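Residues determine shape. Next comes a sample protein:
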Amino acid sequence: MMNKRNKMILMGLVFGGAMVVGIYFYQAGGPMEETPPRQTSKSAAAGKMEKIAKMAASPLDKSSLEAPAAATSSGVNPYISYPENFLKLLGLDIKKIIKERDAFKNTVVHVEWMDHVNEVLKNLDPEKKEAIIKNHTTLLYIKDLLNEAYLSGKIDHDTFIKAVTDLMKWHQQTYQSMLTGSEYEELYGAKPEAANDIIDGVMEAAPRYSFILNQQIPADEVTKQVQGYKLEQIDSHFKKMILDREQIGKKIGDGSMMLEEARKALQKSQQEFIAKCKELLTEDEINTIFGSAAALETGGTQTAPPAVLGDSDQTELGFEIENPNTSIKMVKDKLDKNKLEDIKFFYQQRTKERDDLITKLDAGEIKPDAMENISKEMDAAFKENCRSTLTDEQYQLIFDNQNAAETTSSDIQGAQSSFENQDAGAEESATSANGLTGQAIPQK
């Protein structure tokens, strides 16, 4: 398991699907719960990790991926910089970055990161805060382009790992250039001089084949038992499925695709992946890679089904059950009709207020940090209204998610898209599937 120091510096940019741990599948009725696999990997607390091995051949010029050069100042703000080694790799120029990075200001990962920055660095100089926003959105923009390049086959795995490593080191350097050592350590829970070794170690431990679900066999053993060309073909189809998912998510975000249409598209993509696996692999090979044919078809190896599947609680009750051990039937048995209607009203009222808030954010009427604060106040008001309506037992039945929090206490907190909620894996292999971007994990 990853120690607290390393968890604090691991931040919440989910690789989308570039190195996901586990397969995200959808049923006709809505999203299924994700079950992260457990793969054996090196301990991040075992000391200094070796550097990432020399990259394999790639169609791109790797000279552009040398260690990041010193930050280049831009404009009047000396703390705003750009990772110049990515301009050639991705065909970018600084004007293009400046024009397109603002699209990432409204993402959950950026809003949550800035909320963390504001909470920890309460008296931060406005010029430095502006630089943090611009540098972080630059990071998210470039990482999104790297995801697409990797998933579409334009760059190989080794090039991708090296590029992400360089990108994370550049991002860390932007903080080191503007913060004191104590401020940096307070923000990340680690000393500045430890950052590069932590990044190297985490990225070195990233799994080569992230579709492997079998929890009983270490990933390196799987590669010995299944022929390499088969793993490569499965990997290619897996990345196509994840790329489909990312593109569908973006279409939902810009309003060009409705949820029902998106579900159908995701189901079609996943079924194509499953069919390819069954075509290429023997029954024994499917068991070796995924644990079972059932795990392949569901995208996980759940030991027990969740109490509530998909969004059936919202469909049936009109609100979400947060306690993972509570079923819809249990809620109906414990709450009378009036209380069910009250909670439904509170929940839907909060949803409407949030929608209005997002509209104002998109229109530029409020800033992301203000939205985050208002959203927290809405959550607090919602919970307080529910507490005043329910008995302690009833409230815990619906909202007590302490067990779930304990189960995922070692997870890396990831970004949440408008279409899905992603839970990082519980083991260190799951942390290696996430990027280092600027979302610290709060200490317990």
Summary: The radius of gyration is 22 Å.
